[in-house]
Amino acid sequence: MKYVSTRGAAAGQPHSFLDILLGGLAPDGGLFMPLDYPRITADELRHFRTLDYAALACEILAKFADDIDRDTLAALTRRTYTAEVYRHTRRAGPASDITPLSTLGSEGGTTLSLLELSNGPTLAFKDMAMQLLGNLFEHALARDHATLNIVGATSGDTGSAAEYAMRGKRGVRVFMLSPHNKMSAFQRAQMYSLDDPNIFNLAVQGVFDDCQDIVKAISNDAAFKARHRVGTVNSINWARVVAQVVYYFKGYLAAFDDAAWQAHAEAPLEAMPKVSFTVPSGNFGNVCAGHIARMMGLPIARLVVATNENDVLDEFFRTGAYRVRSAAETRQTTSPSMDISKASNFERFVFDLFERDSARVAGAFEAVASQGGFDLGGTPEFDAIKHYGFVSGRSNHADRIATIRDVDARYRTTIDTHTADGVCVARRYLEPGVPMIVLETAQPVKFGETIREALGHEPDRPADFVGIEALPQHVTVVPAEAERVKAFVAEHSAD
Ligand SMILES: Cc1ncc(COP(=O)(O)O)c(C=O)c1O
Ligand SMILES: N[C@@H](CCOP(=O)(O)O)C(=O)O
């Protein structure tokens, strides 16, 4: 499989998977995308049902990473997706399911379920891809005898997932930018209490988008990037997205019982039953993976993009206007990891929507940089969005509180604030006979303040996180200036 930039001008393209594994943006400022999508067959889908998570991940990754030999890939996925690593499961299924599908109940003539993606070391869906990335990076660096300085941005969960995945890894240093004082107390403690010598936390005086802009500025500085061997772990990195594709397949495979599979034992892909997914969204990385799964042929009816009060994406899918917000307009909410007003991966979807016309994509994102957005309202592209299954909705603090209370009362299940945004919006799109799967993106303990407000008690806390907020914290506060961050990286980078 070869990869090209969404903006079309990346030198030396197309590239292989290993070529683009460690980097971030393409050299022309675009994002890497596969030249085309590998398509699955109905028989393949039926075969996937016999596989455990590690084997399923190997099958799907092999379609995108054909420059890693199959045995190595199998060993890497087997080492990553273990019951020991994804051990924080609370409700359904054995831990070895890795991402159990947990049925809430029947609503609107269908089944409403949660796909548990937060059972890994840091209790958020980021662990699903990040643990694999840690092992892939180790493989690539060992091959090249190289070192890597990872510069990343987080609104709360990517940071801890990356740091837990990379801590102690030889030749790797992590410089993680987070918005100063804008994450939950638990999220801050998770990141800042690490004292591994290869981990550096930088609290940026700004919002998440400022952190992300700095990461992109560094990624766009080819000389700095090369001199300090800068890599990235945000979802601008293609490997992050592709690792997230796997659990859409897993969710689909778990959504139907044996009788339904038997009834479709000979059915072609078009006749297989469909599911819908609702995805709490901010940077568009998670739902972008759903889009890719759908483009590969996974029978998905709807991809529901759920936002919080920071509703840039909801506005786009309702009206066609993509209008990014300034730092001052970005709200600090109780689903803080989604407090994002410039969604990095949205460009990947626009690339498909514009039928891979990279000049048009470049023009649209130049308009984002110079005029703050673009408007597809009333154009054929806006009409075409429905063919991709996308719909959207937003929720707010009151909705989150009401949804957390309702799910707790009806189903004896405590959900986190981001998953609550998802459940709230999913309920607007239930269709009889089409199972609705909401991606559970974090565990409630990460947002204890809001859970207390909603339920009047503390969420359950895994034993390994008891007392974490009281540990000493290690963080350097910096202004939202790329040059200041570069100077810090240059001073502390791995040789
Ligand atoms: C808990 C949680 N939910 C949802 C999101 C939004 O996901 P994405 O940025 O991939 O759209 C994030 C951050 O990415 C998150 O940490
Ligand atoms: N919500 C994320 C923001 C970064 O998203 P990413 O998927 O691009 O890494 C976070 O929790 O940090």
Automatic annotation (TrEMBL):
Domain Tryptophan synthase beta chain-like PALP: 101-361
Threonine synthase N-terminal domain mapped to chain residues: 2-81
Pathway in which this enzyme or protein is active: Amino-acid biosynthesis; L-threonine biosynthesis; L-threonine from L-aspartate: step 5/5
Cofactor requirements of the protein: pyridoxal 5'-phosphate
This protein's record includes keyword Zinc: no
GO MF assignments: pyridoxal phosphate binding; threonine synthase activity
Domain of life according to the entry: Bacteria
Gene3D superfamilies per record: 3.40.50.1100, Threonine synthase, N-terminal domain (3.90.1380.10)
Annotated positions of the N6-(pyridoxal phosphate)lysine modification: 126
UniProt keyword Lyase, yes or no: yes
GO BP: threonine biosynthetic process
Enzyme class: lyase
EC code: 4.2.3.1
Keywords: Amino-acid biosynthesis, Lyase, Pyridoxal phosphate, Threonine biosynthesis
Catalytic activity: O-phospho-L-homoserine + H2O = L-threonine + phosphate
Pfam families for this protein: PALP, THR4_C, Thr_synth_N
Sequence similarity: Belongs to the threonine synthase family.
NCBIfam families: thrC (TIGR00260)
PANTHER family, alphabetized: THREONINE SYNTHASE FAMILY MEMBER, THREONINE SYNTHASE-LIKE 2
The protein's name in its UniProt record: Threonine synthase
Species, as recorded: Chitinasiproducens palmae
Lineage, top ranks: Bacteria, Pseudomonadati, Pseudomonadota, Betaproteobacteria, Burkholderiales
